[in-house]
Amino acid sequence: MNTDPIADYLTRVRNAVMAKHRLVEIPASNIKKDITKILFEKGYILNYKFEDDDKQGKIKIALKYHPVTKLPAINKMERASKPGLRKYAGSDSLPRVLNGLGISIISTSQGVMTDKEARKLNIGGEVLCYVS
Prior knowledge:
By secondary structure, the protein is of the alpha+beta class. The protein is built from three helices and eight strands. It is globular. The two termini are 29 Å apart.
């Protein structure tokens, strides 16, 4: 049993990037699927695929690297809100990552979204993680 599935997700992706893997396979959940969609939309991963089996299902993520320098698109992934210490932010105090160059992923009442989208909609929520 895993007590923090989002931290496990981030760690699996971070480890795969450091090991220069092309693919990483992660057990699926709805919030992990939402985070994966955001990472794809913002250009941090190359592609993804949701596979359903009889149990939980899996997320297969194709990681993105620069074609010449082989540097990964994801430099840093950090968990913000932990099970022992939740971090919430209002719409006026949402965190900015690298002065707007990175993204922070927020879980709001309207669903999981980036900090920029939450600012546009003027809603706050739980800060899940930072990606740059």
